[in-house]
């Protein structure tokens, strides 16, 4: 008993408080209050979504947006309470035990009845708790659970990626969104009314638009801090093509450091508006936070500006004047302690200020630094969406102060996209008046010069084209197609002329083809292990039925006899043998002919995202694609004098097949792009896959700058043609659906409309507007379960606008639901043609192929879907399905 009493007597007040927290934290009362706090996080998240989805103009001064920001603030404050409590518990809890806050969070996450989209409310909290558990540096169940939860949240973030982008781009109720997201929004709107939510925020702050413009700021940091500043700076007075980067709410011990790393990589500076309590504590003397000391020091040492964002991040317009002054003065004390400079820059929390607060700010000798471009990173978990929104605003403003927050993971991930985009658009990152941070500094973000991986040592190609046959019918397009491929390989993909073996017409006899494939390419002194070999054949193909019921395909050389072709042609079996003899790590056969008996195989892990390029280029690949099956004929008469297959293949090489938009095109991507495009134009379905000997690799083409430009030209040309087509049909509401292929053949269509402001022209045509209206009607019918009526409406919509990817896909989807599978397949094919980067269509194509009894065609579409969407919540289930299909 005496020992117990002595222990309590020797404790100081802080230790006593910690012990009390420790014991209280394990009581059911804490668990109940913790669950209540977590419920509030979800509630504030839901309210924020409602307000943002109802906001017609996502202007930072919009009342809906401001109120949403308030609910976000309440959510963030609730999270801070939980984090603070967890930190206190970490100091007192036995290291062998799970932190009570973590335990309550994991239980709530697992047991609460939450919509998948609700779980995004915990993105920041989940990461903070994981960071705290990692800092304890002990093995615990909490680490495992938190890693699983964070991975789960990331999966849902990826799943709802497009829906978030729509909601935060004034398209929250647009067509094409996932059904479960639409149902989620509908549920929230039944629960909350946006006008009532606005009224919940009692004292609405006065938000003043720009009164004075930033000007005459000095050219270096010391002078800037001493210069006389305007009372309010919004950024509209900056020179054109200049921006200032500002980051609020930090510093954060993890994310601010990553922000600084990115700024250093791109060679630019920024302003960090710090919350005082994150800098340290103010008593008799200011004390800098030990946890954040290093990152605070980095801000100053690396040439950035540390500025004032209040001490507690409360809405200052609701506080007494004395507290307002305290909020400003305490933070300024900490800034001076950490930097040695007197700070004169202040940003009011939430941008909330009124005349009374402005008077206090002025009395303290501070200037209010506002913003005219809000990235809305606080509300948007999607980095790409944050970047897109920022550049959309810049397109209008041409200059200004950019608002970010250095406490969010999504901001860390979005910043490289933004800085890279600024560099490409020629923007300078400067001080608030548009001058460099230091003399002689351009301020234009530098693009990181990361060394590209060396994919291959040498590239070899055999290009064969046969128009003139001795015994078989002559062809018109084969030689021209082959020569176009040879030119493309040399001009766009770095194949040396001397490494491209071209064999045409009479020279393309069996002996010459066999010698090149079986001898020249098999020479290990010529073709090395780290090389690639590309083989293109355009000519006749044939298929022979075997006694065992299987088929065997043949390439027909120029001297093959009509009846005895099996004896003097090249069979698929021989092609496999030649492939095995070639020492190169990657071999890709492209056959503009139709036959079957390919003996295709599949590699199991083509879908993995992590280090994907390194994975597929380090392993052996033996791959093939043919123009069609045994009972199909190659369709000539495509655009630009090509067969339809070669035209589609060239389009793929121009960049359209780059479905993951990484600047590289793989044989797998080519197959999943070319096959549906060809099938949508001609009665042939290209077959593609891996040959015997493939070990999980993938043949890769790297897009050069010329190819990138060509891709942009194709996109622009497609828009021109779409506008032209709709304009031509303007007065004919009953016109049949036109095909883009027909437009490609028509040079006149390119001159119908100028190439400026195409998106607006497309939206403004009467047919397009009518199509959107009919599409909305169809969507309502679909949700009501009236599939037949919805199908009729969508049939009308695609006639009005056959170039809208959402409408085309929706029509395919309703046909799919009605089990009109062959029809659905065509519209899925056309969706790929219009939008090859539309991820869900590959899952739909896989499913429809299974329904049609073509499992071998379903596999590559499933694999492509998993590669583009690795965080799919049913990924394991789909992988198991792929393995099962492979066995059949």
UniProtKB/TrEMBL annotation:
This is Tetratricopeptide repeat protein. TPR repeats lie at residues 839-872. SMART domains: TPR. The lineage of its organism: Bacteria, Pseudomonadati, Pseudomonadota, Gammaproteobacteria, Oceanospirillales. InterPro entries: Caspase-like_dom_sf, EF_Hand_1_Ca_BS, Glyco_hydro/deAcase_b/a-brl, NODB_dom, Pept_C14_caspase, TPR-like_helical_dom_sf, TPR_rpt. The keyword Signal applies. The keyword Signal applies. Keywords: Carbohydrate metabolism, Hydrolase, Metal-binding, Signal, TPR repeat. Pfam families: Peptidase_C14, Polysacc_deac_1, TPR_16, TPR_8. It comes from the Bacteria. Residues 241-430 form the NodB homology domain. PROSITE patterns: EF_HAND_1 (PS00018), NODB (PS51677), TPR (PS50005).
């Amino acid at each position: 008993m005496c020992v117990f009493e002595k222990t309590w007597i020797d404790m100081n007040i802080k230790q006593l408080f910690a012990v009390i927290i420790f014991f209280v934290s394990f009581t059911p009362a804490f668990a109940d209050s913790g669950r209540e706090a977590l419920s509030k996080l979800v509630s504030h998240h839901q309210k924020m979504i409602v307000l943002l989805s109802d906001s017609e103009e996502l202007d930072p001064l919009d009342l809906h947006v401001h109120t949403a920001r308030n609910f976000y603030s309440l959510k963030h404050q609730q999270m801070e309470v939980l984090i603070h409590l967890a930190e206190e518990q970490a100091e007192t809890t036995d290291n062998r035990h799970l932190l009570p806050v973590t335990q309550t969070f994991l239980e709530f996450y697992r047991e609460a009845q939450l919509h998948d989209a609700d779980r995004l409310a915990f993105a920041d909290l989940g990461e903070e708790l994981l960071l705290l558990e990692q800092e304890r540096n002990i093995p615990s169940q909490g680490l495992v659970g938190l890693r699983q939860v964070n991975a789960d949240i990331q999966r849902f973030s990826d799943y709802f990626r497009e829906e978030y982008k729509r909601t935060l781009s004034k398209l929250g109720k647009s067509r094409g969104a996932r059904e479960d997201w639409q149902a989620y929004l509908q549920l929230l709107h039944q629960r909350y009314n946006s006008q009532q939510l606005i009224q919940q925020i009692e004292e609405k702050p006065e938000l003043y638009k720009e009164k004075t413009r930033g000007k005459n700021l000095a050219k270096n940091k010391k002078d800037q801090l001493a210069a006389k500043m305007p009372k309010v700076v919004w950024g509209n007075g900056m020179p054109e093509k200049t921006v200032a980067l500002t980051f609020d709410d930090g510093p954060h011990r993890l994310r601010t450091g990553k922000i600084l790393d990115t700024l250093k990589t791109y060679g630019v500076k920024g302003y960090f508006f710090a919350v005082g309590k994150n800098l340290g504590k103010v008593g008799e003397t200011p004390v800098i936070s030990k946890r954040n000391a290093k990152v605070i020091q980095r801000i100053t040492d690396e040439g950035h500006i540390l500025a004032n964002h209040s001490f507690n991040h409360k809405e200052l317009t609701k506080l007494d004047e004395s507290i307002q002054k305290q909020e400003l003065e305490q933070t300024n004390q900490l800034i001076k302690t950490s930097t040695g400079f007197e700070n004169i820059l202040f940003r009011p929390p939430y941008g909330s200020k009124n005349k009374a607060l402005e008077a206090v700010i002025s009395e303290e000798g501070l200037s209010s630094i506002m913003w005219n471009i809000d990235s809305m990173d606080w509300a948007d978990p999607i980095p790409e969406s944050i970047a897109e929104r920022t550049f959309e605003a810049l397109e209008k403003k041409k200059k200004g102060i950019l608002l970010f927050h250095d406490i969010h993971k999504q901001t860390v991930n979005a910043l490289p996209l933004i800085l890279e985009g600024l560099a490409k658009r020629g923007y300078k990152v400067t001080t608030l008046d548009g001058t460099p941070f230091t003399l002689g500094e351009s301020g234009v973000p530098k693009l990181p010069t990361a060394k590209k991986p060396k994919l291959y040592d040498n590239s070899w190609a055999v290009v064969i084209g046969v128009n003139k046959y001795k015994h078989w019918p002559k062809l018109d397009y084969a030689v021209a197609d082959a020569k176009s491929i040879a030119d493309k390989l040399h001009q766009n993909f770095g194949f040396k002329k001397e490494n491209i073996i071209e064999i045409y017409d009479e020279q393309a006899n069996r002996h010459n083809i066999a010698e090149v494939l079986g001898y020249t390419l098999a020479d290990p002194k010529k073709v090395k292990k780290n090389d690639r070999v590309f083989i293109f054949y355009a000519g006749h193909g044939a298929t022979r039925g075997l006694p065992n019921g299987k088929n065997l395909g043949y390439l027909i050389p120029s001297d093959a006899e009509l009846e005895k072709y099996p004896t003097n042609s090249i069979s698929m079996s021989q092609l496999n043998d030649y492939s095995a003899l070639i020492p190169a790590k990657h071999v890709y056969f492209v056959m503009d002919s139709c036959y079957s008996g390919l003996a295709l195989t599949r590699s199991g892990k083509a879908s993995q995202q992590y280090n994907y390029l390194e994975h597929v280029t380090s392993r052996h690949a033996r791959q093939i694609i043919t123009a069609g099956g045994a009972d199909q004929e190659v369709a000539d008469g495509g655009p630009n004098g090509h067969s339809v297959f070669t035209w589609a293949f060239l389009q793929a090489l121009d960049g359209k097949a780059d479905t993951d938009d990484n600047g590289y095109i793989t044989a797998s991507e080519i197959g999943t792009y070319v096959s549906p495009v060809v099938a949508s134009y001609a009665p042939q379905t290209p077959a593609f896959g891996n040959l015997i000997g493939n070990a999980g690799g993938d043949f890769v083409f790297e897009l050069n700058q010329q190819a990138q430009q060509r891709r942009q030209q194709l996109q622009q040309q497609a828009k021109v043609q779409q506008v032209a087509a709709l304009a031509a049909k303007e007065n004919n509401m009953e016109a049949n659906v036109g095909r883009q292929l027909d437009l490609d053949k028509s040079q006149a269509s390119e001159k119908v409309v100028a190439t400026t402001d195409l998106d607006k022209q497309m939206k403004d045509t009467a047919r397009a507007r009518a199509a959107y209206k009919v599409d909305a009607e169809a969507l309502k019918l679909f949700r009501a379960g009236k599939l037949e009526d919805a199908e009729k409406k969508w049939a009308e919509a695609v006639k009005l606008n056959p170039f809208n990817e959402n409408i085309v896909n929706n029509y395919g989807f309703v046909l799919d639901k009605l089990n009109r599978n062959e029809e659905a397949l065509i519209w899925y094919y056309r969706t790929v043609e219009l939008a090859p980067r539309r991820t869900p269509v590959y899952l739909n194509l896989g499913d429809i192929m299974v329904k049609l009894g073509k499992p071998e065609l379903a596999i590559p579409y499933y694999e492509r879907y998993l590669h583009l969407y690795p965080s799919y919540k049913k990924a394991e289930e789909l992988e198991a399905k792929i393995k099962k299909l492979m066995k059949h």
